Amino acid sequence: MPNWAEGNIRLRGKRENILSFISNELVAIYEDQTYSEEEEDENGNPALLSSCREYRPVTLEDNCGGEELIIRRDPDTNPWYYFKGSERQFLFKDDTAFTVTWSEGISTKRDQILVFDDFNAGWDIDCAYFRKKAMEYKIDIRIFVWELGAQYTDRSTFYMNGDTDHETHHYSDWMWNSSMPYMGG
């Protein structure tokens, strides 16, 4: 089981590019497991007979140039949203729908920005995945995470032109120096 680096992920670019990234790359996970009532595993628990995992698309409700984007998953899926094809990169959301607010970038009024809290990465940010997706969808992606167990913070930016900016800080006194000392696991 990985330690979780927790934080936020930000997307910047043209609205249609951001929406394309979310609708194609963010999925909900459905798992169906069947257990035996007669057979037991080595720990005395019901034996797992079959397991099925599938990725289901999320539904987006963008109010046509308005301020909010609603993202929904099927109610029978797990309480997280997975970045399809990444190495354990998720948004953990208990609710079957959540809302994010569109903002304009200060540097240019053409850019839109979405900030997602509850980003979780198993061990660390999957830099190769996000660099590839930033170029593919012509958006900038910035991720900031805290990891309590290994006592580090990581800020990574993946630009649409392929450039990256990656900064990791390790702390000798995490509880005092970290801005979010209880984030991560």
Could you give a quick summary of the protein structure above?
The chain has 185 residues and is mainly beta. The chain has helices at residues 15-25, 127-137, 174-177; strands at 4-13, 26-40, 46-57, 59-62, 68-72, 80-83, 89-92, 97-101, 103-104, 112-122, 140-147, 152-158, 164-170.
Radius of gyration: 19 Å
| Biggest sheet features | 10 strands, antiparallel
End-to-end separation in angstroms reads 11 Å
* Strand percentage: over 45%
Q: What is the number of independent domains?
A: 1
In round numbers, the mean pLDDT is 89
Structure classification: mainly beta
Describe the global form: globular
Output the helix-strand order.
EHEEEEEEEEEHEEEH
Helix amount: 10-25%
Which consecutive residue ranges, at least 5 long each, have pLDDT under 50?
none
Please give the number of β-strands: 13
Query: Number of helical runs?
Result: 3
How would you describe the overall organization of this protein?
By secondary structure, this protein is mostly beta strands. The chain has 3 helices and 13 strands; from the N terminus they run βαβββββββββαβββα. It is about 15% helix and about 50% strand. The chain has one domain (about 5-30, about 50-175). Strands 1, 2, 3, 6, 7, 9, 10, 11, 12 and 13 form a 10-stranded antiparallel sheet that branches.
